[in-house]
Design goal:
By secondary structure, the protein is an alpha/beta fold. About 20% of the residues lie in helices and about 30% in strands. The chain has 6 helices and 13 strands. The strands form 2 sheets. It has a 7-stranded mixed beta sheet with strand order 6-5-4-3-2-1-13, with no helix packed on it. Strands 7-8-9-10-11-12 form a 6-stranded mixed beta sheet, covered by helices on one side. The longest helix is centred in the middle third of the chain and has 15 residues. The chain is globular and about 50 Å long. The termini are close together.
Amino acid sequence: MKVTYIYHSCFTVEEQEVVLIFDYFKGDLPRFDSDKKIYVFSSHKHADHFSKIIFKLAKDYKNISFLLSNDIKMNEKYMERVQIPEEARDKIQYLRKNETYQIMEDIKVETLTSTDEGVAFMVTLFGKTIYFAGDLNWWTWKGETEEEYQDMTKRFFTEIDKLKGRHLDLAFLPLDGRQEERFYLGFDHVMREAEVINAFPMHYWEKPDVIQRLKEMEVSKDYRDRIFDVMEPGQVFEC
């Protein structure tokens, strides 16, 4: 599989017959083979994860589907008002939390409940498993109350427990320096609970130094060699 980093939390994953695009809202997308089936995933409605610009792709790619978290749901009147292209409207499928969808014979999508908004995606693609967290993370912050900490921790652990022992060929995980000394906790927990083969940090707000910070920490010694250095838009990785 070929992985391309686009921007922030957006990545593309290309396989021989299929392209996956996750949480695109800005940046330069590669030009894809028009014969490939393209799936565009949006994990939730926040502006740094979703933009209606994705629907313009339907003009260039006829074999395209939009798999959107249910919190993005739009009615026909709204789609007309914001000028969603006609050719995109019947290619939208909304995915609910904690559901499994058989998209094609060889493509299955499972959803988890985010600890922020929307969902995380688990995509099984021709025998490979891809986990895209969206904003499912251990969002714990300095200065929060004990009640807030316990609530977030319980919700995060409950969701990540669903990954326990799962083989993940690719995992796209938040690593957000705004959490200060707690920036690595969610990333670290996933790496320990699941069998992650290739890990891609994201959501670091143009400050990729957090990747090296984590790699230099003792806590990452068992998995640091599986973390890719996602440093700038346009990087391509072969997995």
